[in-house]
UniProtKB/TrEMBL annotation:
UniProt-recorded name of the protein: U-box domain-containing protein
Keywords per UniProt: Coiled coil, Cytoplasm, Isomerase, Nucleus, Rotamase, Transferase, Ubl conjugation pathway
Localization per Swiss-Prot or TrEMBL: Cytoplasm; Nucleus
Coiled coil region boundaries: 572-599
Lineage of producing organism: Eukaryota, Fungi, Dikarya, Ascomycota, Pezizomycotina
Domain U-box positions: 1035-1109
Length: 1127
């Protein structure tokens, strides 16, 4: 039997050849390791194809893993020298006895053939080993390094001696031993630093049998690593190999080559290659090291370690692994399996746990495009359509699931929240924001590398985002079951990530806005838009629109834009709504707890019931604490100025895109003009409502909580959006969206917390677009709000109009707006009359409701103070509830009263002529007389209640403003007659009482008091004249009387549907509030009425006749008086 060495470019196998049995057998040191993995290899001299299929596959994979070495092999087999025998041997001649198949499949060498480069292990020689059988003796190492020159003689004795240069063999032995921490000496199992070395007795025995010293060389490094790794005990192969890699890599990077083909560097490079190969074996072929198969990833624990850790996997090693992906799919699959396992582990964790290694590991991996692309091929990447588990079972879901909003995390930041002071809460919120910001940055980094890895990877990431959004439509339902949707933290992370992906194309000049392709909506869009409520289209029109298809592919900007709009709707804006609702719920819970506390005495005498009461109360308080912790956490996340600024920038982009879409001009490069085209485009009509709802929700929240982050530029587009859609209200179907636009402007007028003016005040007063269009837009929606079509329209209109009043008050000092109001009154009379009529309706209603509520409060307070102690519990409770309801009504209506009266004062001061038109002057006079009577008349004492200031009611201020309205209109004759003709509420004593109060409290100047006295005289004179005229007419025939108000008609007309004759002024006044015929409720327009000329002639004849009779009577009386005087 003789030994030969089979050299592959990957692994060297030492093989025995037995000529008697005609077989090749593996070297015992290799055989020992392969026995563990059932990989005993026998190669027949005559039948080389008897290898098992498993062995063939393994050998093939081993060959792939080390394919880099083949590029270093020379085309001619290098010569090996045997120092002990003084002869040179060509390795290829040692394999002549192998089968032709083996000869053709094995390269001749595995290292560089350059002069001085390292050569493979020396050949084996067989020797008899007693009863143990045949063993191989490793002959002295061979090398093709040229003979080194003999050391030169010493220099003259007086000069210091030069230390001899280290030989290549010594360098090789020392370096490889230090790099791999291995030793061939039993007495040296620690290095000079006391760190353990792996003793290799098998290799030592082989060298000893070959009569060689214990020296480590590259030729035996394969065997050495296999023996070292196979005998680690409880350690895993990578526990040993990864620190080896770190040492090898450090040496490679810092190595100073003496020349390009430095043989020492070749040694180090070969060591590096073998280390990488064995690391891959440890991941993909652990059984060759004697490890039992396992379902757990062998790679994952090391990915979770820091890259700088000795056992961590650094960027360079990952790069080496990636180079093998195309050659060996097992390497790629190992990484996918490792990340899948990390994902599964992370799904059960929160940020209270040690989650950072998982985030760092994923970031490190996706920095390699090949790994990033491979991860998107995982079966788990987009594995679920179930919203409740999507963030647990998809590959990326658990990373996005991490959030400070997780239930058990909020209580960590805000434990015992009710007992915490403001400083603690603010500090905790800052800490929470920092955590969220770091997490958002990490997630963005992951997604950024995934979408840049490859086109397929990008498409799969976009699909994953779209799925996460499409399955969470229920998050915006009125009542949300948290078990049927994804978590708040998950959705918020999606939103922040998509926001940041939009940043590159959101430049200030909007240069890339044209890349948002409207045809995206017709290319089977990823975002599911079909079932969403549309801005101005029913389901049938929507289905027809989205059923159209257009060829082509959409730009990445289009994909991200539509995804981000949807993410805001289902993500961050749902959190804003949740915070608003949570604050209401917490106020209710706090009130309930206080009521429970007051009832504690009821159970004091019964210990069992008291204990039950205490337990129930504690549970309720715990629930309150949990809600309070969530509130503080939501505030911490949503009050992040950095994120809100970025979010607002995106919303600004959406605003500009919408204005560009509806205007039909190249906005913002071209000027926007109003009104818009009468009919909106199909694209705009069929967009989901949330395109506007997101903007409104976002800016309402910012105006409320963070107005300081709004810049003038962002405010410009916001004001333009509000004015545009309030002027062209037909573009939007939902009245709440239009009301939201008013709310944005209203909140923009609020004074800042620091005392400065509202963030939009300067823009509203200086921006040309606002001064040209805003006032008319507000008046138009004021009118439209009368009929919103909702079940709460009666109350909604007052809230809307209150906000409109505030906006108008803000801009009223600007003369431009006053001039516009005057122009409207002259140029668009019907429009202005409708506006004024509704204003009067509101003043009348809210004053009446306020005074009624105060009367109820007064009477109830008197009842409770006088007989409350004698009432039974039920009766007293009913009275208290009645009092509370009346107090709430009074607060609400009094706020509206103050604003509507103030607005009436402003308008009548500027436009007295417009407010004394025939259609409205009598109603205005009646309203003023009625409220003056309520405030100073006999029943005014009923308005006196406790704590008037609590309701916002200042009787003196209100009286002063009502008097101002009288004074503003006193120069108009028809107004004076209107006051005098009010038969229900006009009382001269009320005017006298008002003058007394004004003087007593100094509410008016002396000049104003004189004018008030003059007004009284004018009204008194008008009253006398009117009474005389009525007396002169006598009994009026019924056919001449208006059927609604029973006064003599001046301009009778015939209604087209009911055929009823009525005075023109009466029906015009009616149509201001009701667009229907008052007699049969048929739709009616003033243009459709016909004048009743015949009746008008009769009325004129009647009036002339009566005047003639009266004149004749006066003349006759005068004549009689003359006769008497003369007689």
């Amino acid at each position: 039997m003789r030994a030969v060495k089979l050299i592959t470019p990957h692994v060297r196998f030492l093989i025995y050849y037995d000529s008697r049995e005609g077989i090749f057998t593996l070297h015992p040191s290799i055989l020992k390791s392969f026995i563990h993995s059932s990989a005993v290899l026998k190669l027949s001299h005559k039948m080389a194809d008897t290898l098992s299929e498993a062995d063939k596959i393994r050998n093939k994979r081993l060959a792939k893993l080390s394919s880099q070495a083949t590029s270093q092999s020379s085309s001619q087999p290098p010569l090996t020298s045997d120092p002990t025998r003084g002869q040179t041997v060509n390795p290829s001649t040692q394999l002549n006895s192998l089968s032709p198949q083996l000869e053709s499949s094995q390269p001749a060498g595995n290292v560089s053939s350059a002069p001085g480069s390292l050569q493979p292990s020396p050949p084996l020689e067989l020797q008899q080993s007693g009863p143990q059988g045949k063993r191989a003796r490793i002959s002295p190492p061979s090398t093709d390094v040229p003979p080194r020159p003999q050391s030169t003689p010493s220099l003259p004795p007086k000069r210091p001696t030069v230390k001899p240069e280290e030989t290549l063999e010594s360098f090789e032995d020392r370096t490889l031993g230090a790099l791999f921490k291995i030793s061939l000496r039993e007495d040296r199992q620690q290095d000079i630093h006391g760190q353990p070395l792996v003793y290799l007795p098998g290799i030592k025995d082989d060298l000893k049998e070959q009569e060689q010293g214990p020296r480590i060389e590259v030729g035996i490094l394969d065997q050495a690593l296999l023996e070292a790794v196979s005998n680690l005990g409880h350690q895993k192969p990578l526990d040993y190999l990864l620190p080896c890699w770190k040492r090898v890599q450090r040496l490679c990077k810092g190595f100073r080559k003496s020349r390009e083909d430095d043989p020492k560097f070749t040694i180090v490079r070969e060591a590096r290659r073998l280390c990488v190969s064995y690391c891959i074996f440890a991941i993909t072929l652990p059984d060759i090291f004697g490890l039992e198969p396992s379902d757990r990833s062998l790679l994952k624990p090391y990915l979770l370690l820091d890259a700088e850790d000795d056992s961590g996997i650094d960027f360079d090693l990952l790069s080496e692994f990636v180079k093998r992906f195309d050659e060996d799919q097992a390497v790629k699959l190992a990484f996918i399996a490792a990340v899948e396992e990390m994902s599964g582990d992370l799904a059960t964790m929160t940020i209270n746990d040690d989650y950072k290694p998982y985030v760092s590991a994923l970031r490190n991996l996706v920095h390699h495009a090949a790994i990033a692309s491979a991860l998107t091929e995982s079966d788990r990447f987009n594995a679920s359509q179930m919203p409740a588990i999507f963030e647990q079972v998809t590959l990326l879901g658990p990373w996005f699931h991490l959030s400070p909003l997780q239930a058990n995390v909020t209580t960590t930041y805000f434990s015992s929240p009710k007992t915490r002071d403001q400083a603690f809460i603010l500090n905790s919120q800052r800490s929470l924001r920092m955590t969220q910001q770091m997490l958002s940055s990490d997630l963005l980094d992951v997604i950024n590398h995934l979408i840049r890895a490859s086109k397929d990877a990008r498409e799969k990431v976009l699909d994953w985002f779209a799925t996460a959004l499409n399955i969470n439509h229920k998050r915006r339902a009125m009542q949300v079951d948290s078990k049927t949707v994804s978590s708040d933290g998950f959705m918020f992370n999606l939103t922040t990530c998509l926001d940041q992906l939009c940043e590159p194309f959101m430049d200030a000049a909007f240069t890339k806005i044209d890349k948002i392709d409207l045809n995206y909506l017709h290319r089977n869009p990823r975002v599911d838009l079909r079932d969403e409520t549309k801005i101005n289209a029913d389901q049938q029109a929507s289905d027809e629109f989205y059923s159209k298809t257009v060829d082509g592919t959409s730009h990445f900007i289009s994909e991200i834009f539509f995804l981000t709009v949807a993410a805001h709707h289902y993500g961050s804006e749902s959190l804003t709504s949740k915070l608003e609702q949570l604050e209401k719920d917490l106020r209710h819970m706090e009130s309930t707890i206080n009521k429970f506390e007051l009832e504690r005495h009821k159970w004091a005498q019964n210990p069992i019931q008291l204990r039950t009461f205490e337990e129930a109360l504690k549970k309720y308080k715990d629930k309150y604490d949990l809600g309070l912790s969530l509130k503080y956490s939501l505030q911490g996340v949503l009050f992040d100025e950095t994120w809100q600024t970025r979010s607002m920038q995106f919303m600004r982009y959406v605003i500009v895109w919408l204005l560009k879409l509806v205007s039909g001009v190249n906005f913002p490069r071209e000027k926007l003009k109003l009104p818009l085209p009468e009919d909106p485009s199909d694209v705009f009509r069929c967009l989901p409502e949330y395109f506007l709802d997101d903007i409104i929700s976002n800016f309402k929240f910012i105006m409320w909580c963070m107005p300081q982050i709004i810049t003038a530029t962002q405010g410009d587009e916001l004001v333009m959006l509000c004015a545009t859609f309030l002027e062209s209200t037909q573009y939007i179907k939902n009245p709440y969206l239009k009301a939201g636009l008013v709310s944005i402007l209203f909140r923009g007028t609020w004074p800042r917390p620091s005392g400065g003016r509202g963030v939009l005040v300067d823009l509203l007063n200086s921006m040309p677009f606002a001064t040209e269009y805003l006032l008319h837009a507000l008046m138009r929606f004021y009118i439209e709000a009368e009929f919103t079509g909702t079940h709460t329209q009666f109350f909604d209109k007052f809230n809307i109009r209150y906000e409109i009043f505030q906006i108008i008050k803000c801009v009223w000092p600007n003369l431009t707006y006053r001039s516009q109001l005057s122009d409207q009154a002259q140029q668009n009379l019907d429009f202005f009359v409708r506006f004024v009529n509704l204003l009067l309706n509101d003043v009348t209603f809210v004053l009446d409701e306020s005074f009624t509520a105060f009367i109820t409060i007064h009477d109830t307070q008197v009842e409770l103070s006088q007989g409350g102690n004698s009432m039974d519990t039920t009766e007293r409770q009913e009275k208290e509830e009645q009092l509370t309801a009346a107090q709430n009504r009074a607060k609400s209506y009094m706020q509206l009263t103050n604003e509507t009266v103030a607005m009436l004062k402003l308008f009548t001061e500027a436009l007295a002529d417009s407010f004394t038109m025939p259609e409205i002057v009598q109603r205005l006079a009646d309203m003023l007389d009625y409220n003056l009577d309520a405030m100073v008349g006999p029943k005014s004492s009923n308005l006196r209640v406790d704590n008037l200031q609590e309701y916002g009611f200042s009787p003196r201020t209100l009286l002063s403003e009502i008097v101002d309205v009288y004074l503003n209109l006193m120069e108009k004759e028809n107004f004076i007659f209107g006051v005098a003709r009010d038969g229900r509420s006009y009382k001269p004593k009320n005017f006298e009482k008002a003058a007394e109060i004004l003087r007593k409290w100094g509410l008016k100047s002396q000049e104003e008091l004189q004018r008030w006295d003059e007004l009284q005289k004018k009204v008194k004179a008008a009253k006398e004249m009117d009474d005389q005229a009525e007396e002169d007419l006598g009994d009026i025939p019924d056919e001449f009387l208006d059927p609604l108000i029973y006064t003599l008609m001046e301009d009778p007309i015939i209604l087209p549907s009911s055929k009823v004759t009525i005075d023109r002024a009466t029906i015009r006044s009616h149509l201001l509030s009701d667009p229907n015929d008052p007699f049969n409720r048929a739709p009616l327009k003033i243009e459709d009425v016909k004048p009743d000329t015949e009746l008008k002639a009769k009325i004129e004849a009647f009036k002339s006749e009566r005047k003639a009779v009266k004149r004749q009577a006066l003349l006759q009386g005068a004549a009689e008086n003359m006769d008497l005087s003369s007689g």
